[in-house]
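Hi all, long-time lurker, first post. I run a small reading group and we've been trying to get comfortable going from sequence to structure in the token notation. Rather than ask abstract questions, I figured I'd post a concrete chain and ask someone more experienced to write out its structure so we can walk through it together at our next meeting. Sequence below, copied exactly:
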Amino acid sequence: MKDQPVDKVQQVPAKRTSLLATREAARAKLRDAGVLANDLVLPADLVPATEEELEPLGTMPPGARPSEEIIAEDRGLYDRRSQSSSVR
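-- Answer (accepted) --
Happy to help. Here is the structure in token form:
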């Protein structure tokens, strides 16, 4: 078995090929409309945010509901089912 040759040719699944074609078609439409961004470059004088500037972005406002409660509400029935099955 160890001396058998390995087929190194990999076929791209049809679904993947379809996805790539769809993406390229969308890019072509955006390019033709003049709205495809090709020059995504950060400015040379960009200064990274400090820890103090970033802290408010990850902090809930005073009196806000706990994030765990908001997440549980977003997950809805799916989350409740997964919690009850893990308790068993």
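A couple of things your group might point at:
The chain has three helices and no strands.
The helical segments are 14-32, 51-54, 67-87.
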